[in-house]
Specification:
Helices cover 42% and strands 27% of the residues. By secondary structure, the chain is α+β, with helices and mostly antiparallel strands. It has a four-stranded antiparallel sheet. It starts with 14 loop residues before the first helix and ends with a strand.
Length: 145
């Protein structure tokens, strides 16, 4: 007795069932696309916030630099010892408020030796400090020599 192979025949699907599966596939792809889009919007928003912080800090540094160039490094420093003063720097742009700018100044005696020649002089050590609330971001902006 010879064995004959029987082939399995899949039942024929109706076109209506195919339409339902295609609709589900389209909905799933739309959900995935929406999730990717939201991720891109979130990343763009975070980068814009970081750029805002950097721009405000850059404007603050430019303002402090202009203050140093206009008034000089030792302006407000005592002839000896140290002091700390808080003053309003003249802002470069109106949107950056530098009302909490603090300048600490210390006068130190420095001795320089070179080729057997020794020279003693005084040097001002200056430290500018600005609180974070002024710059819209976390931390403190600190500039010192």
């Amino acid at each position: 007795m010879a064995k004959t192979r029987q082939h399995y025949q899949a039942p024929l699907r109706r076109p209506q069932a195919q339409r339902g599966i295609a609709l589900i596939e389209a909905l799933v792809s739309m959900v995935l696309l929406a999730i990717v889009g939201l991720g891109l919007v979130y990343a763009l928003g975070r980068s814009l916030v970081a750029q805002k912080y950097q721009k405000a800090q850059s404007l603050a540094v430019q303002t402090i630099r202009a203050d140093l160039q206009g008034r000089g490094l030792a302006d407000g420093c005592p002839s000896s010892g140290s002091n700390k003063l808080t003053r309003n720097a003249e802002p470069i742009v109106e949107s950056v408020d530098l009302s909490g700018l603090s300048k600490a100044c210390t006068i130190k005696t420095v001795t320089v030796d070179m080729a057997g020649i020794s020279k003693t002089t005084t040097m001002a050590q200056v430290r500018y400090e600005l609180e974070a609330q002024t710059l819209f971001g976390p931390g403190t902006l600190l500039l010192k020599n």
